[in-house]
Amino acid sequence: MSRTDGTAGVGSPWVIGRPRGQSDMLSNHPAVEALEAVARTAPIEGLPDLIAQVEGLKARLYARLSAPSAAAVPRDRLLNIKEAAEKLRRSTDWLYRHGGELPFVVRDGRLLRFSEHGIEEYIRRRMGR
Fold first, then answer.
1. Mean pLDDT computed over 60-73
2. Which of 25, 26, 38, 129 has the smallest count of CB within 10 Å of its CB?
3. By C-alpha distance, which of 103, 105, 46, 51 is closest to 78?
C-alpha cells in the first residue's frame, strides 16, 4: 500500500487484492465488478455501512454454500415387505423374524417398512466382509 488512505497506488502490483497479471486469468462476476467500483468511489464516511452490507451478503452466500440442496440430499424410500425381501434375496418370513435385529427397519405399529438406503448400506457392508 503506497498511500495513507489505504488504497493501492497506480503503479502498485496489488490492485483489488490480486498480484498484477492475475486479473487477466480470473474473470470477475459482474456484481463483483460493480462492488469494486462502489468501493473505489464511495465516500469515506459511508464505508462502515458499505462494509456491513458486504459482510451480510458474504454471510448469505456462505449460508447458501453450506445449505443442503434438494439435489444433494437423496430421498429415501420406504419399501414394503415384498420389495425388501426381493432386494435382500430373503423370504418375507425371514424379514418378519429378524425385523428387530435389522438396522434399516422402520416400524409403524405392527407394520414393517424398510429404508431403501439402509438396505443398500447394509448390503455394501456385508459385501465388504
1. 78
2. 129
3. 105
